[in-house]
Design a protein that fits this description.
The chain has about 525 residues and is α/β, with parallel strands linked by helices. It is about 40% helix and about 15% strand. The chain is globular.
């Protein structure tokens, strides 16, 4: 039996505080690097008229100043408490709202309280135009991500737009899923990735699936990307918009591409900051993530050396490998008596790698763990396994919604073989990504598959890729840009999950696209 990760809940504010504290200062500003390294077609502006030969609009729709129907109330104090320390900039205030969506948008469920989803919203910024923000399933809830993004974008941008963070159905405050028994959650997250005997993991995954289906009943099948896209259409109407303007981060971009295919005439100005390749099967997706995570760790190691006084010395890879061996002998303990196993430690590292601004804190957390202090790693992985008083554990929504989107089911023997092979190719993370493919083994196969992106009839859509992205690898994001009828690609040669608010060059391109209808040259390359 695997030992539990933590004996009691840890506050999400610790993790979010680390992230905000390290990113608030990373605002977009002047750089002595070239702002855009460009190759491709000439840029288009809002003055360009007409349509393409395929009938796709060649310009971006105008911004709107709607009067929405949502009842907003100030929630600045509660939001700041939810975010934790250090606090977001004092000039930011927050308003909260809620929209009621049908559980099954394709069915008539009027008058049935059990047939609805209560979607949680957060507004930040004083601009008249709503800009909806959608995040990954396994990342910050959309409301918190919007609050964080507001701290990273230019202040002038928030005079044009109000960011509307949306907690996707089943996450955060949108009837957040909390159905996996804690013992199963600990087993799934803590399983040693190098272990090719998957009996206990399969048992935990099967029990987690059964408990979620029993607990949620018909609601379990309603949490998916297709229904989340329908939620956006409902939100567009509630906001009083003719067309929806939105930002999708990582896997959240898939909600926007799905929306674009279903409602191309309702698309306004869309930015996809990292997007998964929907053409890949489960195995290819996981292997691409493993490859990219390995490359991201190499970039992290070099960054640590470049910063000077790296707590991991000149061999960060060796330090992490030694830590993993150390934990296999004796799981780490925290000050409250909780324990961190190999699986949680590697999950914590993967979480830290996704946010470039957290890299100094990640380096310190790994170094501290080498001396027996697991608090840094435990804080990074706590939102996944434990959640907080404000938000449920992210693993639950990732299991339910992720498996509802995934049509492939791999047998344990296939996963075991992948653990061995990928562990040799990507020694740090290959086995962990391979093992995760077993999570959906016992989950019912969905009836609908997420469509491949096309967005025929939609305006130009800006796609940002990141060279070393451990969550949405660059190759997949670039493929999405090429498959969208109006895809425009900006590639950042940097590292971490997403470029918006991190790369000054990519942020300038995105804010110009959204605020000024300036379409960058396609493709555009941004320096690291």
């Amino acid at each position: 039996m695997r030992r539990p990760l933590l004996g009691r809940r840890a506050g999400l504010g610790v993790v979010v505080g680390l992230a905000l504290g390290l990113t608030v200062s990373c605002t977009v500003g002047p750089s002595d690097r070239p702002s855009l390294v460009i190759a491709g077609n000439a840029p288009k502006s809002a003055s360009t008229a007409g349509t393409t030969p395929s009938g796709r609009p060649s310009t971006l729709p105008p911004l709107e100043r709607p009067s929405d129907q949502i009842s907003w109330s100030d929630c600045s104090a509660d939001t700041r408490q939810r975010i934790g320390d250090p606090a977001p900039p004092a000039n930011l205030s927050f308003q909260c709202g809620r929209v009621i969506a049908p559980l099954d948008p394709s069915a008539d469920q009027s008058g049935n309280d059990d047939g609805v989803v209560r979607l949680s919203l957060l507004k930040v910024g004083s601009g008249p135009t709503p800009l909806v923000v959608v995040n990954d399933l396994d990342g910050l809830p959309g409301t918190l991500y919007a609050a964080r993004l507001a701290a990273e974008l230019p202040a002038s941008f928030l005079k044009t737009f109000s960011l509307i963070g949306l907690d996707r159905r089943g996450t955060g405050g949108s009837d957040g899923v909390h159905c996996v028994p804690q013992a199963d959650r600990d087993q799934i997250a803590g399983y040693d990735p190098a272990d090719t005997n998957l009996d206990d993991l399969l048992t935990a995954s099967r029990d987690a699936s059964q408990q979620c289906v029993l607990d949620m009943d018909t609601r379990s099948a309603a949490l998916n990307t297709i229904n989340s896209a329908a939620d956006l259409e409902l939100l567009r109407g509630q906001l009083g918009l003719t067309r929806l303007d939105a930002i999708g981060h990582g896997e959240g971009s898939r909600v926007l591409t799905t929306y674009s295919d279903a409602y191309p005439g309702k698309v306004g100005r869309f930015v996809l900051d990292g997007a998964p390749d929907p053409q890949l099967n489960t195995s290819d997706t996981a292997q691409a993530q493993a490859d990219s995570a390995e490359a991201t760790f190499n970039a992290f190691a070099q960054d640590c050396v470049n910063r000077g006084n790296c707590p991991l010395g000149t061999n960060a890879r060796g330090a992490l490998t030694a830590l993993v061996s150390q934990i296999r002998q004796t799981p780490l303990s925290t000050s409250d008596g909780s324990q961190v196993d190999v699986g949680e430690a590697l999950q914590a590292v993967r979480t830290g790698l996704a946010d470039h601004s957290e890299w100094p804190a990640l380096a310190s957390a790994i170094a501290a763990a080498r001396t027996g202090d697991a608090s840094g790693l435990a804080a990074l992985v706590a939102p996944v396994v434990l959640g907080s008083d404000f938000d449920p554990p992210r693993l639950d929504a990732e299991l339910v919604s992720g498996c509802n989107d995934e049509t492939d089911r791999l047998a344990p023997a296939q996963v075991s073989a992948a653990i061995t092979a990928w562990g040799k190719k990507d020694p740090l993370f290959g086995a962990a990504y391979a093992q995760q493919m077993l999570w959906c083994a016992a989950w019912p196969v969905p009836d609908q598959k997420v469509p491949a992106p096309a967005a025929v009839g939609a305006p130009p859509i800006l796609v940002l890729s990141t060279a070393n992205d451990p969550v949405t690898p660059q190759a997949g994001t670039q493929k999405v840009a090429s498959e969208l009828a109006g895809g425009v690609l900006v590639s950042w040669q940097g590292s971490g999950h997403g470029a918006l608010g991190v790369s000054a060059c990519a942020t300038t391109a995105a804010t110009g696209f959204l605020a000024n209808a300036t379409v960058p040259q396609n493709p555009t390359s941004c320096p690291p």
